[in-house]
Amino acid sequence: MYDIIIVGGGPAGLTAALYARRANKTVLIIEKGTFGGQITYSPKVENIPGFISISGNEFAEKLVEQVLEQGAEVECCEVLSIRDGDIKTVVTDGGEFEAKAVIIATGAKHRMLGLEKEERFVGEGISFCAVCDGAFYEGKTVAVIGGGNSALQEAILLSDLAKKVYVIQNLDFLTGEKKLSAQLLTRENVEIILGTTVAAIKGENTLTGITVRNEADGSLKDIDLDGMFVAVGLIPQNEIFEGLIDLDERGYVRADESCLTSKKGIFTAGDCRVKKIRQVATAAADGAAAAIAACDYIDSL
User: How open is the CA angle 24-51-22, to the nearest 5 degrees?
Assistant: First the structure.
């Protein structure tokens, strides 16, 4: 049995493991995919404290190395459920593990468009974060796919950097706040294309453009691009916890700043919880808070 089991090996989960091990608690991290989470898709990151520039993969490797050096254990398997009780049982496709406390740090994945080549071009012309990757497209031509608040905020940021920004929305209107829409409309280098979807991605080894389809008449048009930012929403990875802990209407874990969920002994951290800003720095902050809260809980038993 472990003191703490952490579900998810992204920056939030790994930081939680680091803090828990520093408090001399036994820790198991369970990750079903790639350690590091969404940050591993970024070929170059310049907003992580302590690094002028680093690739997402390199950052993840350093964080994993640091956590393993501290004595945390890892399992590469998928969590299927958690059985509640004085001792928590984490059921996976590789067996069952017990702990006094659990930290859920499953993150959220970006909603994709479902196009051929899309997965392959992530980090090679396709991005999800203008704050992270916008500087690489200074003086270039980009498109933002989506019309909600996130898409409009991305487009506004990119319009300060890029030569040209296309905003492509499948509906006949922007769904973001009117204030953001009005601000975007004042930008001379922004072109908003409504009632249009992305039909195909162009390019061999990297993205060179897209083909868009007008939903009203079905006509197709090619647009040359240097980059495309997909902002059509996030999908929290919390389906298996429904009924165990409180989730909001979009599936994010409800928790306060101490990262305690509605269930005693179960904590959360990172992009999977209800929060406004989802960045590496805020994920790490959550991980620290959740680990300290979990340690305090264990010490009180």
Answer: 5
Provide the token pair at 124.
Answer: 């090679």
Nearest partner of 266 among 107, 101, 106, judged by Cα: 101
Distance between CA atoms of 164 and 112, rounded to whole angstroms? 23
pLDDT score, position 43: 67
Q: How confident is the prediction for the chain on average, in pLDDT?
A: 93
Q: How far apart are CA 293 and CA 218, in angstroms?
A: 55
Q: Which residue(s) pair with 31 in the sheet?
A: 76
Q: Which residue has the tokens 């928790």?
A: 255
Beta bridge partners of 79: 92
CA separation for the pair 252, 36 (Å, rounded) = 20
How confident is the model at residue 40, as a pLDDT?
80
User: Tens digit of pLDDT for each residue in 69-118?
Assistant: 999 999 999 999 999 999 999 999 999 999 999 999 999 888 899 999 89
Rounded to the nearest 5 degrees, what angle is found at the Cα of 75, between the Cα atoms of 72 and 81?
Answer: 115
pTM of this structure = 0.77
Judged against a pLDDT cut of 80, whether residue 45 lies above it is answered with: no
Q: Report how far residue 115's alpha carbon sits from residue 202's, in angstroms, rounded to the nearest whole number.
A: 11
Half-sphere exposure of 134 (CA within 13 A, CB side): 18
Per the rule left: phi > 0, alpha: psi between -120 and 50, beta: everything else, 24 is left
- Domains of the chain, each with CATH number or no CATH: 2-109+234-300 (3.50.50.60), 112-230 (3.50.50.60)
Catalytic residues: 129, 132-133
Closest listed residue to residue 245, CA positions, set 227, 260, 225: 260
